[in-house]
Amino acid sequence: MHPDNKFKDAQKLDVVVAPIRSLMQPLLASLADLAPLALNVGDSIDLTAAVTKLVEIGYERVEMVERRGHIAVRGGILDVFVPGHEHPLRIEFFGDDVEEIRNFSVADQRSLDVAPNGLWAPACYEPFLNEEFEPKLKKLSRKQGQILVKLINRQTGKTTFDLIKDYKSGWKAFWSNNTAKLFNIDIKKTYDPMEVPEDYYIETYLQRCFDEGKLVKQEAKKPISK
User: Fold this and answer.
1) d(CA 61, CA 201)
2) What's the predicted TM-score (pTM) here?
3) Of 88, 97, 188, 223, which is most buried by a Cβ count within 10 Å?
4) Cα(198)–Cα(54) distance, rounded to whole angstroms?
């Protein structure tokens, strides 16, 4: 989907240039069916309608925006933190008219530079991911959970703890780590098949499945010496 209506009749894209953070966002095919909310200075929309639309496509309304997927309303101001963006956006309304759109800092909530491209808020993936995968994750055994933590590190180059910290918050990562410990799962665990025997067996099994076509081959984020 092109983030600009003038490209709605364009051909399928062959090449996409995107930031690393955007490429790391998980996606579901169903999200493509949910129209984004696009706003630019001079556009007119009822603020309540804009908030309703954002909630419908997965954003969480809170008192103050702190992480991606959050939205907040104060008077005629709408704050939106779009997944994949470095900074959230602050949209100022005058009645139903969009008067200004700026980036702002999560740390001190101060406005930053003007956002020349306005707001383009696609569906926020988290609620849809939860709906599709949470039941399956809850059925994982303790050992499967331990292996999953290692495979996440294999594919991303980051620990599960660091990913939660980056995409949620340090506080969420702290509590997730404590909860995981109750099930003997260490979300700070890394994957090292050249040093850890269990990781070596996991990697050997993966390579066999790749060779036999049982799994689509995926290279590790960090090269594994053979």
Assistant:
1) 45
2) 0.53
3) 88
4) 44
Rounded-to-integer distance, Cα 130 and Cα 168, Å: 14
How far apart are alpha carbons 103 and 109 in whole angstroms?
A: 10
Dihedral of CA 23/79/170/58: which sign? negative
- Record the tokens describing residue 187, joined without a space: 């979300």
Number of alpha carbons in the 13 Å side-chain half-sphere of residue 168: 14
pLDDT tens track for 21-61: 555 555 555 555 678 899 999 999 999 999 999 998 889 89
